[in-house]
Write a structure and sequence with these properties.
The protein contains 10 helices and 7 strands. By secondary structure, it is α+β, with helices and mostly antiparallel strands. Strands 2-1-5-7-6 form a 5-stranded antiparallel sheet, with no helix packed on it. The chain has a two-stranded antiparallel ribbon with strand order 3-4. It is globular and about 65 Å long. It starts with 6 loop residues before the first strand and ends with a helix.
Length: 292
């Protein structure tokens, strides 16, 4: 482990001596966060399009949708974040347009993408659920990659831990608003430098989504009905996000409560998706049985 490193996984012997959040081309700064999000979008599109080809669908349909959804997904992710941080943004209206510091909530992007897909499929007169079965593979791929933007920004972490994956961060590179009292109670000082030690929840979610993607890729040839892959994604992601959100120190809260909005939404989405999978799967099985 490198002494004085910006970031260290203390029990794994992995360190990053100095982390840069942006680079410049001429006088124009480019945030690594944005590049990582962009890479996730491109990878997600390629995965969704490849699955569409496998299923005999028109791959150009997914290209048209991708060109339509990118703007609305980013807009939805930003609006979701701003709405649940309105106490800050109502006094800093111009900051709403500053995406360089992060502030995108994945659920806002998912909701906006679903609405965009609904409108898109209605106009093109194709099946929403059929396209969603491939699109959700691309979505979870993008999430796997996109979470590493949080690593670059030193955000989306959890409370104190000394577990195997414990991540130590220089306090000076972290937004003070994300540092809980629990982390301050476990503040680490080495050679006069203050550190916090946290759950790397960005990593947990990236790995959880990787496992979900691998399962979906295995299961897709076994699916029983159109739309099943979408409900599997919503159930799997919802369960994982509900657990991970409970560890985070920067959760967006339902106004007037201490309840994390993404945790509540994840539980509701997961429960609904599991119910639909159980009901629709059972109904499909009975229908097949009657056809024999």
């Amino acid at each position: 482990m490198i002494e004085g490193a910006d970031i260290s996984f203390v029990h794994l012997g992995i360190s990053v001596s100095h982390i840069e959040k942006a680079f410049s081309i001429g006088s124009f700064p480019i945030a690594y966060y944005g590049l990582i999000i962009g890479l996730g979008m491109i990878a997600g599109f390629l995965v969704a399009q490849a699955d569409a080809k496998r299923r005999g669908q028109d791959p150009d349909l997914y290209l048209d949708f991708a060109l339509s959804v990118i703007f609305f997904a980013i807009l939805g992710a930003r609006l979701y974040y701003v709405v649940f941080q309105w106490g800050y943004y109502k006094d800093h209206l111009l900051e709403i347009f500053n995406l360089r510091q992060g502030g995108l909530a994945i659920y806002g992007g998912v909701i906006a993408s679903a609405i965009t897909l609904l409108v898109f499929t209605k106009k093109r007169r194709v099946s929403f659920f059929s396209m969603a079965d491939s699109a959700c593979l691309g979505l979870v791929t993008g999430q796997i990659i996109g979470r590493w933007g949080n690593f670059i920004n030193c955000e989306a972490f959890g409370g104190y831990t000394d577990s195997l994956f414990a991540m130590r961060l220089k306090r000076s590179i972290v937004n003070e608003n994300m540092i809980s009292q629990e982390l301050l109670d476990h503040l680490i000082v080495e050679d006069g430098i203050q550190y916090i030690q946290v759950h790397p929840t960005f990593l947990y979610e990236s790995l959880w989504n990787l496992g979900l993607l691998l399962f979906m890729l295995w299961y897709r040839k076994r699916k029983r009905f159109t739309g099943e892959m979408l409900w599997i994604y919503l159930a799997g992601y919802g369960i994982g996000r509900a657990w991970i959100e409970g560890l985070r120190t920067d959760s967006l809260l339902i106004p007037g409560t201490t309840v994390a909005v993404s945790q509540a939404l994840s539980l509701a989405v997961a429960a609904s998706a599991v119910g639909i999978l159980f009901f629709a799967g059972g109904h499909h099985g009975k229908a097949r049985g009657k056809g024999k």
